[in-house]
Amino acid sequence: MNVIDSIVTQSARIAAVRRDIHAHPELCFEEVRTADVVAQKLSEWGLPIHRGLGKTGVVATVLGRDGGASGRAIGLRADMDALPMQEFNTFAHASQHQGKMHACGHDGHTAMLLAAAQHFSRQRDFDGTVYLIFQPAEEGGGGARVMIEDGLFERFPMQAVFGMHNWPGMPMGSFAVSPGPVMASTSEFRITIHGKGGHAALPHTGIDPVLIACQMVQAFQTIISRNKKPVDAGVISVTMMHAGEASNVIPDRCELRGTARSFTTGVLDLIEKRMQQVAEHCCAAHDARCTFEFVRKYPPTVNSAAEAHFARKVMAGIVGEEQVLVQEPTMGAEDFAYMLLAKPGAYCFIGNGDGAHREMGHGGGPCTLHNPSYDFNDALIPLGATYWVKLAEEWLAQPVA
Questions:
Q1: Which residues form the Peptidase M20 dimerisation domain (predicted)?
Q2: Lowest CB count within 10 Å: 119, 154, 166, 278, which one?
Q3: Domain 185-296 is in which class?
């Protein structure tokens, strides 16, 4: 691997910062301490910062050797927030906050961008400007959208923006990037079925909302298997069902909640329309009624072709062509999608390995995202930071169109 020596030299210090952030996880829009750590390091390295976009966001400006006179600018983004879940790990840097954990590696994403920032503070081998975006609230809060609404791209005008996520199961030392949709849109639904309660021994006297709910859940899957084209991806998952208080009582209502995913607006429109029709008609068939709520959250994450191909070229120069993989689209969602709606760019994966990097004291589960036994692989820090540096330098070195 062709990593930058000075970044490797400092990687242990950056890893210590990463572990400190891991030990003090903060949820969306609560990343006050994390933002303080980031801002302190950036200021220590002499980089001007702006705070407050997206409530707790931090943006650093790195001017090239021309003082930014070329007008060319690129944005590099890392997310900072943790998840509301209990950590199973017991190693020294495990979460110190009950019910909060860096189970998605945002601590590592922040560390990789900090390592790049430290390098930029010492060596600015480019003309133009690099904006380092430390974003809050990726995990459901839409922090990218809020930063944009707060004027991110007006205050820091850039021609392209790039993001990166660690990917467990991908070999350490590999990247993946592809043009087009790489992560799905996410929507949430809540359906309340209103039946008629009664004695469980006399079901004919009531209208059982639990029975209706069971039929509804099964019928939703026919939308995926029989309504949309087989080549179009889509997911409907009912993840919560709430009803009843006693074993001998038919409740008068049942609530279903869950998520729907797709890569295109057309498929999402179909899912929403058909779900509402299925819900209402399932209820009508049993003389019940329902309320149907469908909230669209993150749009699909779609890489622009030119920027994805450019990122692939940069990666190949670092790890070799054979270690730059095809980025298989995933039904997970990512609010970097909002940035890609506003600017050209690409969102890539960096291999986090199979979990063998974890120290004694890790939980018994796999090292997968959103798992209580997860931990970021610190060996990625110099590799990810090298990618950020090379990407910015080579992108800004392109001739102006």
A1: 188-280
A2: 154
A3: alpha beta
Phi, psi dihedrals of residue 386, rounded to the nearest 5°: -60, -40
Exposure b/e, 82-91, CB count within 10 A at least 16 = b: bbebebbbeb
> Could you tell me the fold of the domain covering 5-184+300-396?
Aminopeptidase (3.40.630)
* pLDDT tens digits, 320-335: 999 999 999 999 999 9
Q: DSSP letter string over 331-372?
A: S---THHHHHHHS-EEEEEEE--SSTTPPTT--SS-S-TT-T
Please tell me the pTM assigned to this model. 0.95
Q: Is the confidence at residue 305, as pLDDT, over 70?
A: yes
For the chain, how many residues are written? 401
Please state, in angstroms and as integers, the Cα–Cα distance from residue 275 to each residue in 216, 221, 223, 266, following that order: 9, 10, 8, 14
Same fold, 5-184+300-396 and 185-296: no
- Count how many Cα atoms sit within 13 Å of the Cα of residue 304 in the half-sphere of its side chain: 16
**318, 139 contact by CB (below 8 A):** no
Question: How would you classify the pairing of strands 73-79 and 289-296?
Answer: unpaired
Bridge partners, residue 96, by sequence: none
CA distance 22 to 359: 14
From 244, 346, 355, select the one nearest 303 (Cα to Cα).
Answer: 346
Given phi > 0 = left and psi -120 to 50 = alpha, else beta, which region is 55?
A: left
* Model confidence pLDDT, tens digit, residues 40-62: 999 999 999 999 999 999 999 99
Report yes or no: 385 and 201 within 8 Å, Cβ to Cβ.
no
Residue 151 gets the label, from left (phi > 0), alpha (psi -120 to 50) or beta, of: left
Domain ranges within the chain, ordered by starting residue: 5-184+300-396, 185-296
Q: At residue 339, does pLDDT exceed 80?
A: yes
Q: What is the DSSP letter of 3?
A: -
Q: How many CB atoms lie within 10 A of CB 16?
A: 13
Average pLDDT over residues 164-172: 98
Q: Give the residue from 206, 184, 180 showing the smallest Cα distance to 195.
A: 206
Task: Tell me whether residue 289 is exposed, middle or buried, using C-beta atoms within 10 angstroms of its C-beta: 0 to 12, 13 to 18, 19 or more.
Answer: middle
